[in-house]
Recover the amino acids of this structure.
């Protein structure tokens, strides 16, 4: 090409632009071509063997053959390795489901109303679920404060949306290391127990019913039973009365739990949800809180220590003792909350409410007179 001044331009490689070949779409989506090494590319004239991409060819070669079913199963892994991976994936999925359920559970947390000075590291957390029985809760808290103990503790009371007059009486209670919560909508006794158990931050948790009275400081010495028998996970009252015969189940009227062992050995939830192994136990009436007993018995039949009971003259009131009938630990009065909204002619489990109310009225008469009779009927 002539230039001004008679000079001639010599063409160079920079002036030669080779047209780019159109790219051929790889129809095999299961196996994408990879970039080859420079040695393989140069040996094949710019395109590696097997139709792979080369920077010199700037195009794809012929489509690769589709993968077979065996190729998609992670070649190089044995059946045992694949089963191990599948098991781990199932466990991770289970943990994710548990986490999601936990987040949904805490979204229903109740509102805190009162809170006194908190202990930094209490040894035991005493939790009480309340529903329309403020007079019994007052007596229960009084029984806790009456007996001198060395164990540091805190108390959490959760109200399951009681009637306004009943809850107003709870607000007037003043006791050291007490926290009071209230659910805005009713959730049921078992749900409140599950929330209280998760709320506790101590190595030991003592669950008391609202109509339970501690008769001595014997419950504190029961903590030593966990040191004597390393198989024990919980100690509680047998769940049995006139309408229920579940002697291997424990009732949350008195339930002392080693939370450290329980968390390590058992899978929550403990008071709601499935009750595994129900068919293997003598149960007259199934309750959601039996889930803890069932899981503990399946893990180790010797993991539960039982408080036996004997009836009293106060209707369905009973005394729980540990091994020796003279070693009374706790008193429990059945149906205190349910009677709050019933008339005398209403029926509870086949019995008129009048008969239960008479026993409770006699209990309060002797309680305020200081003449409670805890002897067997």
């Amino acid at each position: 090409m002539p230039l001004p001044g008679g000079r001639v331009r010599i063409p160079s490689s920079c002036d030669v632009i080779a047209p780019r070949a159109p790219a051929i779409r790889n129809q095999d989506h299961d196996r994408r071509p990879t970039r080859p090494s420079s040695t393989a590319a140069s040996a094949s004239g710019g395109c590696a063997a097997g139709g792979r991409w080369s920077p010199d060819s700037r195009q794809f070669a012929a489509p690769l053959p589709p993968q077979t079913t065996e190729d998609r199963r992670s070649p190089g892994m044995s059946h045992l390795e694949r089963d191990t991976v599948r098991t781990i994936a199932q466990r991770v999925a289970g943990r994710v489901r548990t986490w999601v359920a936990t987040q949904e559970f805490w979204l229903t947390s109740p509102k805190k109303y009162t809170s006194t000075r908190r202990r930094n590291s209490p040894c035991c957390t005493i939790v009480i679920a309340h529903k329309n029985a403020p007079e019994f809760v007052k007596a229960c808290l009084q029984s806790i404060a009456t007996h001198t103990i060395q164990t540091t503790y805190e108390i959490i009371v959760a109200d399951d949306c009681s009637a306004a007059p009943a809850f107003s009486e709870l607000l007037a209670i003043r006791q050291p290391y007490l926290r009071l919560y209230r659910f805005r909508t009713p959730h049921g006794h078992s749900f409140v127990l599950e929330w209280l158990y998760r709320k506790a931050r101590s190595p030991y948790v003592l669950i008391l019913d609202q109509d339970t009275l501690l008769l001595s400081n014997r419950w504190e010495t029961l903590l030593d039973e966990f040191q004597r028998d390393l198989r024990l996970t919980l100690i509680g009252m047998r769940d049995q009365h006139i309408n229920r015969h579940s002697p291997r189940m424990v009732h949350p009227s008195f339930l002392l739990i080693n939370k450290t062992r329980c968390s390590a050995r058992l899978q929550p939830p403990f008071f709601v949800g499935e009750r595994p192994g129900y068919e293997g136990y003598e149960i007259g009436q199934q309750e959601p809180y039996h889930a803890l007993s069932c899981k503990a018995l399946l893990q180790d039949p010797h993991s539960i220590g039982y408080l036996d009971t004997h009836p009293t003259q106060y209707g369905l009131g009973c005394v729980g003792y540990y091994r020796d009938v003279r070693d009374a630990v706790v008193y429990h009065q059945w149906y205190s909350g349910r009677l709050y909204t019933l008339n005398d002619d209403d029926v509870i489990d086949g019995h008129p409410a009048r008969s239960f109310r008479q026993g409770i009225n006699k209990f309060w008469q002797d309680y305020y007179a200081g003449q409670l009779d805890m002897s067997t009927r």
Notes: Confidence is low (pLDDT under 50) at residues 12-19, 26-62, 67-72. The two ends are 126 Å apart (CA to CA). The first helix runs from residue 38 to 43.
